[in-house]
Amino acid sequence: MSFEAAVGEADITPVHPPYPSLWMGGYGWSPRGNHGAIARRLRAQCLVLWDGGVPKVLLRADLISIPRDVNQAIRGALVDEDLVADEDLMLLASHTHSGALYGDTRPNPNVMMGLTQADVDAVNGTAGLITDALVQLVRDTLELERTPVVLGYAEGEAKIGHNRVADDFAVLDTVPVLRLDTTGGDLFAVVFGAACHPVSRGNDDVFDGEFPAVASELVENALGVPALFVQGACGDQEANDPHSPATTVQLGTVLGQAVVDLLGDDVFDDVTGPVATAMTEVALPFHNDTADPVVLAAVRAKYELRREVLGPADPNWRHAGLMLEQIDAEELPTSMPMPIQRWRFGGLSVLALAHEPLSSYDVRLRAAFPGSLWVMGYANECEGYVADNDTLRSGGDLHSGYEAGWNEGDPTIAGEGSYCISYAWPGPLKFSDTVTPAAGTTERIVMDASLGLLSSAE
Questions:
Q1: Which pLDDT score is estimated for 1?
Q2: pTM for this predicted structure
Q3: Domain ranges of the chain
């Protein structure tokens, strides 16, 4: 079955005015805002691939993350307008740590940076403008002229990062590349990926698409076609040191050149239609069952104690206050929802995982699946880390428990300084104390759902 394609682009760099907020996302725990300096503009890019006349929409953007309410708002607008089916729309954030703070839910701006309500209102104003631009970009791209294309897939390699959780954990150096060529044999567009935290620039106040933007610009300048970067399972994958603007250029150049070199080789496998798309959502329970009133009372007492021993300048104090508010309002969550999406081509399957999945999911899924598989992270929505069972059960013994969500020997509440604080969750996700994850625990739920989607005939 033949494909047709179109690529659109929009600038989503906040500039005041009209953007009311220039607060930045990516680092805690103190206020951080842009003052007008821009190293590389933040871009959103939309690839529409018509498969037998039916559009499949990949929308990627230079954003730290996409909160759940924003994901639902974008989907609601486009699906309600009958522009694309829900399972045919894939939203992807690059996870640049030098972009805008996006939304007021997860991460929570007050907990993470102590922002005032007026600041949070401004953040929401900027988020609304960016969201409107993303929706309009899809509308506009769907109206562009369609170009008949053929697809090919190959994998290169770029060593740009390391595993920050443990030296003996996986380091993902694979560079997946999907090429789109016109039926006349000319390159039309490139979609490429890597799995590495875009923190290479460091914690300054400059807007920057980070090393993915450097790589995309290198590919575009070298080949004269749009290049779209998508992030992998990089929850534990850190950009090489030292973190500085020079490192951003260096790592982006390594990645971009790897893509250009691969495109110069005749190593691509054919990727064909039709495309079978599907999406499911799982609920990842927390390790502590706060649906039990006795358990909930114990959790409440621990957060009350945290409020007593810490002060308002501490994000852990602010987080504890939010948890107490949610307990008293009977709104404390008991699980974290996780969308998982699959696009299956002939010759390639794409699995898009929500949130910040650790590299082990890429390793284990590719080992368990017999065909070509591209595992993407930060897909559709991102509201926390999804660690493997080994990391979860180790808690503070690995990287101070940041990715696990707990430390100080206590998995019943959010660990101080862990991702559960900024993302405003009550505690870590459920894990097994045994090496093999049991049914109903995080790794088992994610793996079973992912492999189920990949093997489904639908």
A1: 57
A2: 0.98
A3: 3-272, 290-328
